[in-house]
Amino acid sequence: MTMEKGNIFVASKLIHVSLHEVENQLELSLRQAFVSLNPKLHPPFSLQIPNPQEYIELNKAIVYSVLCDSGSCKTHIKYLHALVTDGYAFFTSLLVGIVVELYSKLVDSAKVQLLWVTKEMISVLSVGIDDLVVSLLRRIGSGDYSDENLWLCSELVSLFLDEWDCLVEDLPLVLTSALYSFLRLLADHCRVLGIAKLDNVKRLEIRFCVKMFREQMHLCLKIGREIVRLLQDLVHVSEFREIWNDLVSNQCADIYQSRTSSRYFLLRISHEMETQLRFLLGNVKLGSHKRHQIWFLKKFLLGPEKETVLIDIVRFICCVIHPTNEIIRSEIMPRWAMLGWFLELCRQNHHIERSVKLALFYDWLFFDEKTDNIMNVEPATLLMVWSIPQYPHITHSLLEFLLHLVETYDTRHRDTITKGVATAFREIERKGVIRSLDIFLSNPALSQDLKKKLSNLLAPVKLLKPPPAIGPPSEAVLRECVTSELDRPVILHQYRRRKNQDKRTEAVRSKEANLNAEDQ
Fold first, then answer.
1. What are the pLDDT digits (tens) for 349-371?
2. According to the UniProt entry, which residue ranges have a biased composition of type Basic and acidic residues (predicted)?
3. No. of H helices and E strands in the chain?
4. Could you tell me the residue ranges of all domains in the chain?
């Protein structure tokens, strides 16, 4: 990539680009500022206070020079210290933009410089430094054991250890984000053997996480109930065994009542993946979704160990992506259909399948109608309901897994979990997510043993009469989303006909209401 300045062509020193690639506007603006202001970036520096536009351009030029010229970076940062007027907010926002938009294209030397300047911004507690660190954490790929990814993981965990005192005092929530990320990464890293560089990363991750639990337990507990789900995958690691036993014995009851903030579920989802998931579940209609799913599969899920990110995707979809009523009523692909597809993808790996199912049902176990969101449990409900007519084995498998969790997940707090699951079912019916729980309790497609277990679970709970709900569930959408052998045109026709009938019914009711109002 080149930029013309007079008769001189200046190539980018910041990113790798292909021959015919369109120029990235952020990179271009940084490079233009650097070329324009390069003479001012050398001592002696001007003592004149820049106007707002000059200040913006100087920040851009310094960002570019710091990332591209390691020999002069300390000089340029000193210049930044002298002229800064906004607490480094704009400078840091440029770094965040680079991490979000350009990180995968950065040349190796720029990545090294990016970590260096991040430490500099921590030392001055720049405005927005927490966003920068979190953005870097999201760049650590799940199931990626390449040298570049392990280097980033090692550098970040070392950064947290090196800057420990400063972070504890001034940026404690950044440490909780780091703990969530590294606990989740450790669960995957500890399942892989024989990679020397990974072994070193694991030692650093364990050191950091254990230090957090030993010295800052109150910060660890701020993560909420997800901390239990993350730790349970590490009980086989000797360094965590005592921590686990202490947590389960003394603090689980309180932790289960503490809901995890949605911001944590973004930590293991890359920026590109988040964008694509939001697009799929907010814009893509059934019938045109298949090519988008295939692209998503090839981009993010193909490769050894890549499917581990499905666990994080499921938590993200359940707890972060909550569609509007307009989207729910439209033909846009629903969350439960996407989750059904993900479950199909991991059927061959039983460990991942169990973890994905736990991610799907985790909010059920401790559900409290006063604090928890019904949208967190809605997709699992609809996946079970819409599977019954044609795929009862899916419903049976999911419901059986949920009831098994009630009995075995934490026997010390079985009453709490029983109450949570029963409350979730009650709210699902009361709020009209489904018309009636009879669709499970009286359905001949499900085994008598399973229905009896569910009935016993719900017996202590007085189920409230729900408001009217949209018509009975259909198998059409699930069939379209999780199989490749059925007659899609017919299925989609049936699904769209249902949608059109609902729309016509709403129009008739609205017209009748207007006529009644006029009569009155």
1. 999 999 999 999 999 999 999 99
2. 502-512
3. 27, 2
4. 7-139, 141-268, 271-458
